[in-house]
Design goal:
The structure holds 2 protein chains of 2 kinds. By secondary structure, chain A is of the alpha/beta class. Helix content of chain A is about 25%, strand content about 35%. In chain A, the strands form 3 sheets. Chain A has an 8-stranded mixed β-sheet with strand order 2-1-3-4-14-13-12-9, with helices on both faces. Chain A has a 4-stranded mixed β-sheet with strand order 6-5-7-11, with helices on one face. Chain A has a two-stranded antiparallel sheet with strand order 8-10. In chain B, helix 1 packs parallel to helix 2 and helix 3 packs parallel to helix 5. Chain B is α/β, with parallel strands linked by helices. Chain B contains 11 helices and 11 strands. In chain B, helix 7 links the parallel strand 9 and strand 10. The two termini of chain B are about 30 Å apart. An 8-stranded parallel beta barrel of chain B has the order 1-3-4-5-6-9-10-11, surrounded by 7 helices. Classes of the chains: A alpha/beta, B alpha/beta. At the A-B interface, helix 1, strand 8, strand 10 and helix 6 of A face helix 2, helix 3 and helix 11 of B.
Chain lengths: ~200, ~260
């Protein structure tokens, strides 16, 4: 069973619709017991960091997410869902995240329009075909994806950065560490290329 | 580099596409979802549905349409037209719309922008601004251009940004429907004075017009209706035109390359 974590915000339906399109059934839930039983977890993202982390902690979902990642279950964080994995965020003050990935979430500089909104290119950080991230199977370097965010992740360990995107500064557009996948863009809104990523993730579940 | 967006706009009345659509290869040219899927394949970057349903009783049809669109279309789409309050916004977003655009209701109650962006996130709230040229400036109009507000364009655009709007959909009422080109000066002055993306609208008649508004007008996105619907120019053709002139665009050729490599 694949679970989409409902944290009271965000457009979960679109993520679910996209998984249906590529042939995967998902359950949208905020029940920690159901999340505990999940075979794969998607943490989607629209909304504010502070409200999201508070919801996850209040509902005791945070612990289940951390346990699932430690247990090696496939885990996909989308946009805010990726940012929540970090140590802390500067969005609306300073707020602790799940601290699974050491690093911080920062706002784009005032020199660029905010939010970073629209289709932008991703650039893979590796330079050959080896060590290919399974959810990017069939996705070409330089592909376009749909982004909507005002904050970006700064990763302490650059080795987990799988692709970068350039918007005033170069930021990680995807991260990968074993069973843990994070994308700053919205695969569910990125047409064919995005659906391919969700299909690839579904195959891991 | 972030690409400039090309956004077809569909006028919807009681759940059906209105205005002359001339697609021979569509089974039902009045079906918004079929048309939206077609535009997704054509590599439109986003879609806007403008609901012009007049009767209040039939307003829920647009919510159903948003839900069905979200099941079939996997690019972002915005619903605008007739949105009055937080409840309208809530239902549209809940069924799967990515953004809503508010126009008259935002002028009548500016705090709706603030409440909505705090509750649903700035990135879901587009404020549509209709402007007409007056001496040395532009004035904001509402009710489809029938009512003048006395608001000056920059005062309103900056206020909208402060209140938390994620984007501005800026329509020149002078140019709308003329096919003579966008109001470049209007677009440029707004784009340079706010730090949120601007979607330019009104006046597109040929690819050069999109080029002008994206480059000289500094718009982040260009919205157009009839030039795409009437198949005067296809989206891939317009994008190719823009790409050749150095505009950062999500080009259709990527698809060809992609299919070659991945079967």
């Amino acid at each position: 069973m694949m679970v989409i974590v409902d944290y009271g915000m965000g457009n979960l339906k679109s993520v679910q619709n996209a998984f249906v399109k590529v042939g995967y059934k998902t359950v949208i839930t905020d029940d920690p017991n159901l999340i505990k039983k999940a075979g794969a977890i998607v943490l989607p993202g629209v909304g504010a960091f502070r409200d999201a982390i508070k919801f996850l902690k209040d509902k005791k979902i945070d612990k289940e997410l951390i346990d699932a990642i430690k247990a090696g279950k496939p885990f996909l964080g989308i946009c805010l869902g990726m940012q929540l994995l970090f140590t802390f965020s500067e969005e609306g003050g300073l707020f602790d995240g799940l601290n699974i990935i050491p690093g911080r979430v920062k706002r784009f500089p005032a020199s660029v329009k905010c939010p970073h909104l629209g289709w932008d290119k991703i650039k893979f950080t590796h330079n050959s075909n080896y060590n290919i991230n399974p959810i990017f199977k069939g996705v070409l370097d330089g592909s376009y994806f749909y982004f909507v965010h005002s904050y970006y992740c700064e990763v302490n360990n650059p080795k987990i950065i799988y692709s970068t995107t350039d918007y005033g500064l170069v930021f990680p557009s995807s991260i990968w560490k074993g069973n843990l996948f994070g994308v700053q863009f919205h695969p569910e809104k990125s047409s064919k290329q995005g659906l391919r990523i969700l299909k690839n993730f579904g195959e891991l579940s | 580099m972030l690409t400039k967006r090309i956004i077809p706009c569909l006028d919807i009345k009681e759940g059906r596409v209105v205005k002359g659509i001339k697609f021979v290869n569509l089974i039902d040219a009045g079906d918004p979802i079929e048309l939206a899927s077609f535009y997704e394949k054509e590599e439109a970057d986003e879609l806007v549905f403008l609901d012009i349903t007049a009767s209040w009783e039939k307003r829920n049809i647009i919510i159903e349409l948003a839900g069905k669109t979200a099941e079939k279309v996997f690019i972002p789409f915005t619903i605008g037209g007739g949105i009055r309050n937080l409840e309208d916004i809530y239902y549209l977003l809940r069924v799967g719309a990515d953004k809503v655009s508010i126009n008259t209701a935002a002028v009548l109650n500016p705090f709706l922008i603030q409440e909505a962006s705090l509750k649903f996130g700035s990135s879901t709230i587009v404020v549509a601004i209709d402007a007409v040229k007056i001496d040395f400036d532009w004035e904001v109009v509402i009710n489809g251009g029938r009512t003048r507000t006395g608001l000056r364009i920059l005062d309103w655009a900056k206020r909208v940004e402060r209140l938390g709007a994620g984007e501005i959909l800026l329509t020149s009422m002078d140019k709308d429907g003329t096919k003579e080109g966008y109001d470049i000066k209007l677009t440029k002055i707004v784009s340079e004075n706010v730090n949120i993306p601007i979607i330019a609208s009104g006046g597109a008649g040929k690819p050069e017009h999109l080029y002008e508004v994206l480059v000289e007008g500094k718009a982040d996105a260009a919205l157009a209706a009839s030039i795409f619907h009437k198949k005067e120019y296809s989206i891939p053709k317009v994008k190719e035109f823009l790409g050749k002139r150095g505009v950062e665009i999500r080009l259709a050729k990527e698809k060809v390359k992609d299919e070659k490599n991945n079967g």
